[in-house]
Amino acid sequence: MRKSYQGIWTLAALAVAFSAFAGTAFAGEVTKYQAGERRSGYTYAKKETQMIQDDDLANPGYLWVDEGEALWNKVDGKAGNSCASCHGGKVVRLNDVATRYPVYNAKLGKMQSLEQRINQERQEKMGAKPYKWESKQMLSLTTYIRNLSKGKPVNVSIDGPAIPFFEKGKKFYFQRRGQLDMACAHCHVDNPGGIIRANTLTQGQSNGFPVYRLKWQKPGSIHRRFRGCNKQVRAKPYGYGSDEYVNLELYLAWRGRGLQVETPAIRN
Amino acid sequence: MAKARVKVPKSVKKGQAFLVKTLISHKMETGLRKNKKTGKKIPRKIINKFVCTYDGKEVFSSDWHPAVSANPYLAFYVKATKSGPMNFKWTDDDGKVTKKSVKISVSG
Question: Would the ipTM clear 0.90, i.e. be above it?
Answer without folding.
Answer: no
